[in-house]
Design a protein that fits this description.
about 30% strand; globular
Length: about 100
């Protein structure tokens, strides 16, 4: 069972949450090529539409490290920051409970 995860929160400029979510989602082809990233989600908050979360599950800590320096991360961090009001907050995490994927 995968126990390694990551969560990144992005706070977009007012009214730019959808743009941020789309730019992050554009990295999906790179993530699909990563064998160590079985789940990758881009979530836009319903409570605050200018907050976007990127949630990942990884097969190992090495896979997480490779992902964070891989092509998807490079694309996201090259295109998204100009639309943000603050630096993204990166939370490497461990899974304590889960259902499904």
């Amino acid at each position: 069972m995968t126990t390694v995860a990551g969560v990144i929160s992005f706070k977009a400029q007012s009214g730019r949450g959808e743009d941020v979510a789309r730019l992050i989602a554009a990295a999906l082809p790179h993530v699909e090529a990563e064998t160590g990233t079985p789940l990758w989600l881009v979530l836009r908050s319903n409570t605050d539409p200018d907050t976007v979360f990127l949630v990942d599950l990884f097969s190992s800590e090495a896979s997480r490290n490779a992902h964070m320096t891989g092509e998807a991360a490079k694309q996201i961090f090259a295109t998204v920051p100009p639309l943000l009001v603050e630096e993204p907050v990166i939370h490497p995490a461990d899974i304590f409970a889960r259902k499904g994927a």
